[in-house]
Design a protein that fits this description.
Layout lengths: L1 H18 L4 H24 L3 H7 L4 H29 L2 H17 L6 H28 L6 H30 L1 H22 L17 H6 L2 H30 L5 H28 L2 H19 L5 H33 L2 H29 L2 H17 L1 H4 L11 H4 L2
Amino acid sequence: MYTYIHVQLRLKIIITRMLMLNNRKTTKILITLFIAIFSSTLGSGLVVPLLPGYAHTMGASGFLIGMIFGAFSLSRTVMLPFVGFLSDSRGRKPFITLGLFIYFIASVLFIFADNIVFLILIRFIQGGAAAMILPIAQAYAGDITPHEKEGTVMGLVHLALYGGLSSGPVLGGFVKDTCGIDASFMFMGLICLSGFILSIYFLPPVTLEVSASLAGRPGQYLSMMKDRRVTGLFIFRLAYTMCIGSIWSFAPLIADIKFHMESMAIGVVITLSVLISAVLMTPMGILADRGNKKILMIAGGLITAASMFILAMVEYPWQLYLVSVVIGIGGGISVPSVMAVTVIAGREYGSMASMMSLLTLAHSFGMMAGPVIIGLMMDMLNVSIAFAMSGVLMFIATLLIPWLIFSEKVSPGDSMSSEAG
């Protein structure tokens, strides 16, 4: 508790100065959301780099390893539309806290997994819980974001996201190397349980939530996807997360089998990308609010595509670190602008959680399709070809940005052109 209070005070100073907030309630909510997201992603990041090697020791093929990651995204994909519109009408806190508690239970179940099917089932459960945490926390932050501070707030939110993910792999690798993989699973569970307790205690009840959303409606998603801007955001996020999913699923396997790297070193490979993205999130968010979101998105997309072409040609261990650095820079530059435009669109539609869920749906499709496609091509053809194809898709999605996201609006209101920078 003392540690939480100390961190809360430091974050309060940072957030207040950056956003120039005078509302203590808003600042407290942002701090709590920051810590809740950090807790969940730190817990998740602990074991993600360990799962491919762990599954390989059980005799999993490339396809089954892809399915372990794909199961997470499949269940999250199924849950997202329902969680999004329910949260718009019934509040944010119940979903965030329930998701963290289920994550804790799933973490403990990993200790008892003794076959591939059980691993896939646990990841499926985790995916459903994840649908309740990140997009709803993002929507909560979007609800209370001041105008023209969308990039800054989303940069902070993703600082928590990527900060947790960047810390997790190194900690997970260290715990596994020193205490065994079961200790890593238990550590993940304890972290998620702490996030659950903090959210229960510090997030205000639903009756006191400040929401920019109207009652959610399932049909709202179809209306949103008719908006060219939202379609562009969806495609860009899909392509980007296909690249991320491919790297997270198979870069650790390459490091383990081809280069015989230790768990700690594999954790560093994954950590570099998310750590660099985390460092860039806040300054790029501020720049998105003051500058040109389109340029930032295009630059980040092209850099991400380049990382996949590099991965397709990896011959030495140091090149895996290079890939991680390059894709980290690409995400750090582009993601705050993507999320800033998403907040603006969610505010216009009056369905912030539905809009965030839609973007997270694209994320889930990408994390599901990327590993499965790469796994199939690894078994049948050549994994390098699959990585190169991911780079081509990312390049095409980036070229579509000016036409889809920043062209003539189709959505309600007409503030996009002025707010897009």
